[in-house]
Amino acid sequence: MESVLILGASGGIGQALVKELNLRGKTVTSLSRSTDQFDITNENSIRDAIDRLVGPFDTIIVATGALAIGSNKPEKAIKSLDPIVVAEQFALNATGPALVLKHALQHMPHDRKSVFAALSARVGSIGENRLGGWYSYRASKAALNQLIHTASIEVAKGGRTKPLSRQWRSVATDTPSITVDVDVLKKTQAEAARACK
Predict the structure, then answer these.
(1) Domain encompassing residue 76
(2) Model's pTM, two decimal places?
(3) Which of 77, 104, 111, 197 is buried most, with the most CB atoms less than 10 Å from its CB?
(4) In what order do the strands lie in the sheet with 59-62?
């Protein structure tokens, strides 16, 4: 049976993934800020949480992230850029998922194909940016895409794991009836299988 680890399981996307993957008969392990005091912005928290897990996991999905942190709204103009907000966005949306990959590799099988996926956002694409604004969020998601892509090159040389960032157009997480199309996992796994050949 396929074993999946979901990080950020208390958020809207994470909850939907856990629910759907359980319905599909997967063995799901989850970590969240609210249940496990898992803090993706703190490497010690990441390392400690991952060290307590019993793997291996065929798929690891980082479903953390936020457009707005606290009372800080996305910037609409460069004059609104605040270095503290930029650093917070990078810690949550880019550095944290990369640190999860750093520490989670030990729990991924080396004898079969496996996938590490970090949820990104299309607004992190330079080519998709036609509207401007959202400086910190866009930059942090672009950084996440580059971190995961760079790690995928390194990791692919030594094993069968394929790290991928998966982009979502938009997800409304303020409603309890959120649905997520987890068929994206099949596409992710197919991409990983091609890359691991």
Answers:
(1) 3-196
(2) 0.81
(3) 104
(4) 27-31, 3-7, 59-62, 114-121, 161-168
